[in-house]
UniProtKB/TrEMBL annotation:
Keywords: Membrane, Transmembrane, Transmembrane helix, Transport
Superkingdom per UniProt: Bacteria
Organism: Entotheonella factor
Membrane topology: Multi-pass membrane protein
TM region positions: 44-62, 74-97, 188-204, 260-284, 291-314, 320-341
Lineage: Bacteria, Pseudomonadati, Nitrospinota/Tectimicrobiota group, Candidatus Tectimicrobiota, Candidatus Entotheonellia
Molecular function terms, GO-annotated: antiporter activity
Pfam families noted in UniProt: Na_H_Exchanger (PF00999), TrkA_N (PF02254)
Domain (RCK N-terminal): residue spans on this chain: 378-493
One GO BP annotation of this record: potassium ion transport
Name of protein: Potassium transporter KefC
GO cellular component: membrane
Cation/H+ exchanger transmembrane domain sequence ranges: 10-338
């Protein structure tokens, strides 16, 4: 059976990817196919799915800053949204015949958005660290805290008095980071990450708390370690394979009858309403329309937690068993809708930008983008390792440089080094429309995401920028796409690093000493 669902997952994932849909839509389909034939994948699938979710949320924790939860666009918008949407769902479910208590309980589950889906789609686009990604993940972590309280109230599990002892974990941070450093790199570092993830999840579960919350907390304790990005990269492929099982398992929950199917379709209509409320609340907390829109669509889904609340309700006699299959289909359909919606989110915003931007408040936004770069003659978009190295080299050559990045944490690190680093999303058409580029002779696009570079080139071409635009490219197929988009110069870090190493080696072999910087 394991070979069957793994093989089907590959085939359907490949099929949907060929029509530009995310593979996870195919994985959901596998679950429904197996369910239609009354097939079960067994405990192995469940354990794999659970491990995948924990690893995903551990990587979210590696990029988390707890102070982000204290920002009003997170705690105020997240809390008000939960209260409002829960109230609306309670009234709606009661109108369909449910008693008030089970209606309120189920409504709470439906008010949540999927942490797993949002983290996955944001990570695929390299936007977990972007402003809108941080806002969305902050809201989801807040919802996870609400979920813990809800399950305690429902009697689904009791929190152990020993849970207060978890505060000790905070004080163990120096020890964890020391072990992190001693683990070196590659397989030992990966093994440490897996052990900490599973152990943290199990510890929280044993104390009556969410294992998912435990994975996030353990990851957050390692977030400020210099090797945390390396660990996140090592875990990436492992958790991607495990998460296939999660999406198959969601689909396996079963196919509903006609009545439940109608209920599922009605619930799907509510997803745009949830997203619109998020959009309005983010705007009220002074976000720009673009980030409010992107954060809102990242949250435009139902959570797998709705299935958990429904199961508890069925076990306690509050809900009929038919609700489970209806909710399973609802969650699966919301995933299938949200995945492509997020993939094309930037393009959707560009299409409706004139309309959506009308709703921005007049107050200064925390994600305000610059209009001027001062006296800078070179602009670097993407201030990671490549962008920072380029910044230092150009500055040493006497150039006046400015850097842009959408990751607030990255900007803090750059400013601590004395860089002129400003907040800016290179995929935002408004940035390129407002930014004064008269003095900019050279633009370097060092963002890792291909689509971000392609869109930036399109905006620059549309604006009529006449300077030189250079970009990093990691694969041959990217070269063709970026060349067609109008890039002047392509740089492959892997190829260029190998060529430079060879020049240095042959120069040293000839006994000529270090290669002059200009020739290296």
């Amino acid at each position: 059976m394991d070979i069957l669902w793994i093989g089907l997952a590959y085939l359907l994932g490949l099929a949907v990817s060929l029509v530009s849909l995310p593979p996870l839509v195919g994985y959901l389909g596998v679950g429904f196919i197996l369910s239609a034939f009354n097939l079960s994948a067994g405990n192995f699938l469940h354990e794999l799915a659970h491990a995948g979710v924990l690893l995903l949320l551990f990587t979210v924790g590696l990029k988390l800053r707890f102070r982000n939860l204290l920002r009003p666009e997170v705690w105020a918008a997240g809390s008000f949204h939960f209260a409002l949407v829960m109230s609306l769902f309670t009234v709606g479910l009661a109108a369909f015949g449910l008693l008030w208590k089970p209606a309120a309980f189920l409504a709470a589950g439906l008010a949540f958005s999927s942490t797993v889906l949002a983290a996955k789609v944001l990570e695929e686009k390299r936007e977990l660290g972007a402003f809108h990604g941080r806002v969305a993940m902050g809201v989801l972590i807040l919802q996870d805290l609400f979920a813990v309280g809800l399950m305690v109230i429902a009697g689904a599990g009791s929190v152990s008095p020993w849970a207060v002892a978890l505060i000790v974990i905070v004080f163990s941070q120096p020890l964890l980071q020391r072990v992190f450093t001693l683990s070196g790199r590659n397989e030992l570092l990966l093994l440490l990450g897996v052990v900490l993830t599973l152990a943290g999840g199990k510890l929280f579960e044993s104390l009556g708390l969410s294992g998912e919350l435990g994975a996030i907390v353990i990851g957050a304790l390692l977030a400020n370690h210099p090797r945390s990005p390396e660990l996140a990269h090592l875990i990436w492929s492992v958790k991607e394979v495990f998460l296939v099982a999660f999406f198959v398992e969601v689909g396996l929950a079963g196919l509903p009858n006609v009545q439940a199917l109608l209920g599922s379709l009605i619930l799907m209509v509510a997803i745009p309403i949830k997203a619109i409320i998020f959009f309005i609340l983010f705007l009220m907390n002074s976000l720009r329309a673009r980030n409010a829109f992107l954060a809102a669509i990242a949250l435009a889904s139902y959570s797998e937690f709705a299935l958990i609340t429904a199961q508890v309700g069925v076990n306690n006699g509050l809900l009929p068993a038919s609700y489970l299959s209806a909710l399973a289909l609802t969650v699966a359909l919301s995933f299938a809708l949200a995945a492509p919606l997020n993939r094309f989110g930037h393009g959707l915003y560009d299409r409706f930008e004139a309309f959506l931007s009308r709703f921005e408040t007049a107050r200064r936004h925390p994600d305000q983008q610059p209009m001027s770069l001062g006296s800078a003659s070179v602009l670097i978009c993407g201030m990671g390792r490549t962008g920072s190295a380029a910044y230092e080299w150009l500055r040493d050559q006497g150039k006046t440089v400015a850097g842009l990045d959408s990751d607030p944490a990255q900007l803090e690190a750059c400013r601590a080094k004395g860089y002129r680093a400003l907040y800016g999303d290179a995929e935002d058409v408004q940035l390129w429309a407002d930014l004064r580029l008269d003095e900019i002779e050279l633009i370097l696009l060092t963002m890792p995401d291909l689509e971000a570079k392609r869109r930036s080139l399109g905006y620059l071409h549309k604006r009529g920028y006449s300077g030189v635009v250079a970009a990093t490219s990691y694969f041959p197929e990217e070269d063709e796409i970026l060349s067609q988009a109008g890039v002047n110069l392509l740089f492959n870090p892997f190829i260029e690093a190998g060529a430079r190493l060879a020049r240095l080696g042959t120069h040293a072999l000839a006994g000529l000493g270090p290669l002059p910087e200009a020739e290296a």
